[in-house]
Design a protein that fits this description.
Elements (H helix, E strand, L loop, with lengths): L6 H11 L11 H9 L3 E3 L6 E3 L5 E3 L10 E6 L7 E6 L4 E2 L16 E9 L5
Antiparallel strand pairs: 1-7, 2-3, 4-5, 4-7, 5-6
Length: 125
């Protein structure tokens, strides 16, 4: 994914930092931030509004191209809108950890609350 690892690596990390606790989804934003920092990666400043332009391309009202970066996407829960649910945007496809939801759905089929790019802090040579 954004770190070059698989979701199972994140789950293993969360279990390792909470020894003796039966950790299950949903995982916390803080656990995600800690995991990303191991890879010199952070969740950056995001876009609150995501829509489509006249050509049907996704765009966000922000100072970055939302298709250029993987992202942490927060949406209203489809089961209960008083809760939020986190998704992962690869830069091309949306991944939903909810086993009852299909990966690759149109991002605008969700009620998007926030769209935060995942940024690699390392200087590229």
């Amino acid at each position: 994914m954004a770190t070059g690892t698989f979701p199972e690596a994140f789950v293993g990390y969360v279990k390792a930092i909470h020894p003796g606790v039966d950790v299950k989804p949903p995982y916390t934003d803080i656990d995600l931030q800690k995991y990303l920092l191991q890879f010199d990666t952070i969740v950056g400043v995001g876009a609150g509004t995501v829509s489509r332009d006249d050509n049907g391309e996704l765009f966000g009202e922000a100072s970055f191209n939302i298709k250029e970066y993987p992202a942490y996407v927060s949406v209203k829960s489809e089961r209960d809108e008083k809760y939020e649910h986190a998704l992962f945007w690869s830069g091309e496809k949306l991944y939903d950890p909810n086993p009852n939801s299909q990966d690759g759905r149109d991002p605008l089929s969700y009620h998007i609350v926030g769209w935060w790019p995942i940024v690699d802090l390392r200087i590229k040579k």
